């Protein structure tokens, strides 16, 4: 059976419109402006006549039409009409002929004078599984919405849900101790972007650790099984606090979006770099490793923008190879051409070790840094352990070396190990 490709026919302008939505999440915005950006992108990439967003009012269990072309603030109970059914069932509803569907409520058509022909309705669910609203697109030009349209719409709906969740968090800050709550909520948002659990990859053991130096940090990592393979990311933005946290969260979301839309490694890396170069301040950038592991072929392809050293411990020889970055940090400058990826072959027992500067540059009271040689010593002694145990051991050794000196930088570790018997 042929499965429609959601990227087929997607123009460069369409891809940029979708990435613009992701980029906007890291910038200050009001609710209506953000939702207008999302709905405009939906109309463009889905070739729809209209799009709208309904917000869920949890107090009354109603949906409120917040962004539409001609009317606003229409309220319908959850369960009423297609948007209500979508909210109740938490699933996408694709209807080729709305007036033939008994769930369709023509009241909004009568009020607006618009004639709905076909519709695609999607629930907006935040990272905790809570309903925040419903997005709906109407009347595809020249036909009805298909499975490929549903894939693209789902990607936009996920971004819209992130935006709504962020707005609600931001509104909560105003009601309390602003600075403390802002830092705490930013930490929650940042931590929610990290993997909730380590992915299961046949023949491999993987682990990620993130310990911010403050409430929020400028580091991030990702370990996720996607269509293109095991996605491995480690990023480190310049500075500390909320601004770097937003920068790496922005990069994280843009990478996930690009890969979800079917981009290959080089294209995703290049497009995210160019988007960051256009939006980050001149003195800001992100060092980032982005790799895809083919677990069947045991081959890792990667690009590293300023993130290094990349450590490859070879179990057979006990050697620890150090690979340099493949290019400049993300966002430092637009890339005139797509850079080809580098590759590493992983033999049984081999380890890929990615560490942020917070490990290598963890200082003791005298100002001496932990350094790369001490990291390699830990790998040689404990490489047979699980990645989780090895991460804990490395952290213990770093803290013992520091002898009580405070952590001054974020500590992030990503370890990928090919099992000896695989």
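Q: What amino acid sequence fits the structure above?
A:
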């Amino acid at each position: 059976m042929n499965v429609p490709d959601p990227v087929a026919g997607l123009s460069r302008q369409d891809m940029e419109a979708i990435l613009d939505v992701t980029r906007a999440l890291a910038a200050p915005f009001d609710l209506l402006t953000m939702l207008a950006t999302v709905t405009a992108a939906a109309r463009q990439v889905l070739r729809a006549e209209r799009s709208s967003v309904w917000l869920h009012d949890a107090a009354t269990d109603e949906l409120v039409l917040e962004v539409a072309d001609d009317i606003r603030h229409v309220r319908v109970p959850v369960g009423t009409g297609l948007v209500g059914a979508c909210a109740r069932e938490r699933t996408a509803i694709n209807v080729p002929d709305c007036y033939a569907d008994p769930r369709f409520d023509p009241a909004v058509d009568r009020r607006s004078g618009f004639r709905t022909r076909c519709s695609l309705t999607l629930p907006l669910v935040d990272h905790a599984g809570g309903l925040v609203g419903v997005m709906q697109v109407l009347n595809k030009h020249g036909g009805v919405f298909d499975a490929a349209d549903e894939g693209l719409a789902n990607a936009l709906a996920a971004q819209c849900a992130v935006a709504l969740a962020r707005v609600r968090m931001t509104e909560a800050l105003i009601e309390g101790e602003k600075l403390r709550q802002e830092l705490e909520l930013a930490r929650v948002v940042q931590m929610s972007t990290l993997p909730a659990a380590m992915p299961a990859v046949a023949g491999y053991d993987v682990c990620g650790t993130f310990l911010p130096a403050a409430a929020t940090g400028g580091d991030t990592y990702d370990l996720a099984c996607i269509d293109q393979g095991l996605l491995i990311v480690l990023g480190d933005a310049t500075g500390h606090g909320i601004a770097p946290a937003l920068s790496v969260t922005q990069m994280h979301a843009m990478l996930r979006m690009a890969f979800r839309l079917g981009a290959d490694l080089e294209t995703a890396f290049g497009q995210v770099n160019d988007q960051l170069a256009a939006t980050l301040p001149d003195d800001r950038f992100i060092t980032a490793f982005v790799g895809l592991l083919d677990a069947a072929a045991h081959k890792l392809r990667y690009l590293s923008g300023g993130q290094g050293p990349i450590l490859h411990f070879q179990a057979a020889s006990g050697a620890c190879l150090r690979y340099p970055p493949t290019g400049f940090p993300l966002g430092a400058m637009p890339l005139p051409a797509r850079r080809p990826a580098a590759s590493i072959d992983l033999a049984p027992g081999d380890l890929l070790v990615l560490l942020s500067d917070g490990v290598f540059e963890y200082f003791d009271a005298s100002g001496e840094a932990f350094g790369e040689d001490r990291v390699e010593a830990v790998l040689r002694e404990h490489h047979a352990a699980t990645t989780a145990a090895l991460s804990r051991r490395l952290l213990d050794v770093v803290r013992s070396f520091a002898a009580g000196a405070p952590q001054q930088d974020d500590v992030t570790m990503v370890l990928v190990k090919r099992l000896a018997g695989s």
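Q: And what stands out in the fold?
A: Residues 1-8 have pLDDT under 50 and may be disordered.
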